[in-house]
Here is the input.
Amino acid sequence: MKRIFKIASIAIVVMALPLSADAAGPDAKKADDTFFDVKIDTKVVKDKKTATITATGKNGYHCNMLYPWKVSIKSGTDLPEKKVLRKGDAKTFTEKKVVFELTTGTGEVGIEMKMSFCDNKGCKAEKRSYKF
Here is the structure.
């Protein structure tokens, strides 16, 4: 009996794991398409690039104001001294949108963003990597 319960528990856990879009097939939507969007706009002036990173909820989700949002710079050239931006560093921090602004050199920059969105049923935390 214990063995059957253990196998059933493992099956439930495996079935609950999210599939990546690649693993789920070509027609599967990525998580970004379901309850939030992240848009990165860049502007280059001389030898500096300014990125405006905007996160918004969709399909009934809003930005979670209680979550410790964070943008971490993971790679790039001519980076600012401050490599981690927290919610207090956000240019805009509302339930409608969260906006971070980051100035770097003109080369490619890699970031990791930790964020959370809520609807009337609960909240979901996400961690995503982006390059610009």
